[in-house]
Specification:
This protein is of the alpha/beta class. It has 2 helices and 7 strands; from the N terminus they run E-E-E-E-H-H-E-E-E.
């Protein structure tokens, strides 16, 4: 599988909800929200969400517009066929932790 690197980074903010025992992360720049039971699952789900969004936008011819708006760029062209994944630095900051009532 080919990797298409995206130059730049998009931050996420996350919190742990003790009531549901779930991590939740929000990416305001991409209007994405995801979750996971563990920190590792949360980060995997963040990358999956980015890949789904970017692939959809690429198929519709709208990815370049988003990348330009966010001051990002591709390090290489998207392959015309075959399997590929986008690699985008997406640091996740823990903003708060919800406390059980």
């Amino acid at each position: 599988m080919r990797i298409v690197r995206v130059v730049g980074e998009i931050p996420w903010r996350s919190s742990f909800d003790f009531r549901s025992a779930q991590w939740v992360a929000v990416c305001d720049a991409l209007n994405l929200t995801t979750g996971g039971e563990t920190w590792a699952e949360l980060q995997t789900n963040e990358q999956d969400a980015i890949n789904l969004l970017f692939r959809d936008l690429a198929e519709r011819g709208e990815l370049e517009q988003l990348l330009t708006r966010l001051n990002l760029r591709l390090s290489e062209p998207i392959p015309p066929s075959g399997e590929y994944l986008f690699d985008l630095a997406s640091p996740t900051a823990v903003t708060t932790a919800s406390v059980a009532a």
